[in-house]
Automatic annotation (TrEMBL):
Protein name (record): uroporphyrinogen-III C-methyltransferase
MF terms in GO: uroporphyrin-III C-methyltransferase activity
Record has Oxidoreductase as a keyword: no
Entry's EC annotation: 2.1.1.107
Top EC class, one word: transferase
Keywords for the protein's UniProt record, in alphabetical order: Cobalamin biosynthesis, Methyltransferase, Porphyrin biosynthesis, S-adenosyl-L-methionine, Transferase
Record-level GO BP terms: cobalamin biosynthetic process; methylation; siroheme biosynthetic process
Pfam families: TP_methylase
InterPro entries: 4pyrrol_Mease (IPR000878), 4pyrrol_Methylase_sf (IPR035996), 4pyrrole_Mease_sub1 (IPR014777), 4pyrrole_Mease_sub2 (IPR014776), CobA/CysG_C (IPR006366), Siro_Cobalamin_biosynth (IPR050161), Uropor_MeTrfase_CS (IPR003043)
């Protein structure tokens, strides 16, 4: 008889329930304990089994319902009590989801872990906005960066964006002015096209376009709020009809 439960680190995708993997949906509908992030869409949580206990460990900027150490301890405690736990995360658990930390903690305490990948926020939001992250004519390299990273001014971002490259910045709304200044200081053209995708792959999604130099003013003028991704590169000028848009003035229309 199994005495210890399994922790399933499950990616909930960018928000649309139709973008869940079959494995994620099956676990969600059968689980009796779901520990979920704040960015998991309510329509996904509504798929949970009627007997499931839902535990929110929502994280927002400067405010965490539970510190990360306590979240990891909660997973281990419940599994050691013999319960299977679905740890439901927005996007993919191994892309800025701290899934690696939680998996390591569980394994260190003798708890079995299964990783269920999800469509990442970058992939899901870009697809919903019909922005190709790679394109034979425009980009063969994609980089993902956390916009809230410490020591932003000391890092060298010179090779992350530019001709033939796409840069996707997570969690960058609050630091948009510093991000724009940093990229331009490291040599990126102020005219580089960018897009901000707010609430990607959700009914309330907005796609805003500008130049790199116009990013801070656009974020402020349009009152952009998280969750939002900043995509930087020539691919962001790609429209739904396949043409390249003239985007320099779109931010204030």
């Amino acid at each position: 008889m199994k005495n210890t439960g399994t922790v399933y680190l499950v990616g909930a995708g960018p928000g649309d329930p139709d973008l869940l993997t079959l494995r994620a949906a099956r676990l969600l509908m059968s689980a009796r304990l779901i520990v979920h992030d704040g960015l998991v869409d309510p329509s996904i949580l509504a798929m949970a089994h009627h007997d499931a206990k839902l535990v929110s460990v929502a994280k927002r900027r400067s405010h965490h319902t539970l510190p990360q150490e306590e979240i990891s301890a909660l997973l281990v405690r419940e599994a050691q009590a013999g319960r299977d736990v679905v740890r439901l995360k927005g996007g993919d658990p191994f892309i800025f989801g701290r899934g690696g930390e939680e998996a390591e903690f569980c394994r260190a305490h003798g708890v079995e872990v299964e990783i269920v990948p999800g469509i990442s926020a970058a992939n899901g939001a870009a697809a919903a906005a019909q922005i190709p992250l790679t394109h034979r004519d425009h980009a063969s390299i994609v980089s993902f960066v956390a916009g809230q990273c410490k020591g932003l001014s000391e890092q060298n971002w010179a090779g992350l964006a530019g001709k033939g490259r796409t840069l996707v910045i997570y969690m960058g709304v609050k630091t948009a002015p510093a991000i724009a200044d940093k990229l331009m200081a490291d040599g990126l053209s102020p005219d580089m096209p960018i897009a901000v995708i707010e609430n990607g792959a959700r009914p309330e999604m907005r796609v805003l376009r500008s130049s790199l130099a116009g990013l801070p003013d656009m974020v402020e003028a349009k009152k952009v709020k998280s969750p939002a991704l900043i995509v930087i590169g020539d691919v962001t000028a790609h429209r739904e009809d396949g043409a390249l848009a003239q985007i320099a003035l779109e931010a204030h229309q």
